[in-house]
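Comment thread on ticket #2218

A.B. wrote:
> Attaching the input chain for the structure job we discussed in standup.
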Amino acid sequence: MTSRLRLLGATMLVLAAAAGAQEHPAVTAQSNTIFVGADGKYESAPDTALVQFNISAQEETAKAAYDRASRAAEQIRQILRSNGIESKAAEIGFFSLEPLYDYRNPKRKLIAYRVNSSVSLKLKDFSKVAPIVSQVSDMDVTADQTVSYTLDNMDSAKLKATEDAYRHAREEAAAVAEAAGRSLGALSYASVDTYEQVRMVVPRMARAMGAAVAAAGPTEQFTPQQITVTAHVNALFTMK
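C.D. wrote:
> Ran it. Output below, let me know if you need it in another format.
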C-alpha cells in the first residue's frame, strides 16, 4: 500500500508540473508529496480615480510653442484650484520640444514646433472627476484623456488575494491526502502570480462623461465597478 501511495504522489506531481511548465518554475518530483495549483481573489470598491491626459501645443517658433504649453499648464492649475484641489496633486511631466518638417518639400522645410507633456492626477473624491474632465476637454491643447479606477494600496490587495489562493490550495491538497488515507504535511515549495483588473474609461467616453455633467450628477454617468485582484498559487506539500 505504501509503495502505491508513493507512486500516486509522484505521478500527480509530474502531471501538474508538466501542465504548468510554460508559466511556472519546474518542481523536482518527490515521493510522498502533493502538488496543487489554486486561484484566489480579492474584490473591493476602488478608492482612487486616476485622470491622465496629454498637453500638445504647436506654434511656428519654439518659444511660442513653449509659452502656449506653459499657459496650458497654468490653466490646468486654475481648474484644479477652482475644484478645491491643490495643484501639487497633479504630476506634470517635462516639456519635450519636437520640430515639425514638411517632408513633401525636397529640402525638408521646417514648418513648426510642438511642445508635449503629460499630466497625471489622482482623486479620492469621485465627484470631482466629471467637472475636471469636462474643463480639461474644453482646452484646445489637451488630448487622450483617460479615467481609470484603482486601489491606492494595491500591494495589500495582492496579499489578500494570495492568502485566499493559498487557502484554496491547502484545502485541495488536504482533501487529496485524506482521500489517500494520509494527512497533509508542511509546505515544501510555492510560487505566486497576481493580476489586477483596472477599470478604465477610454478618451472618447471620458469626453462624453465630462459633457454630461451639466445634465446629471457626476456619479450618475459613471459608477466605478469593483476592483478585482486575482492570484494563482502553486504549492508543494509533503504527506504524513
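A.B. wrote:
> Thanks. Noting for the ticket: The chain has two domains: 19-44+154-198+229-239, 48-150.
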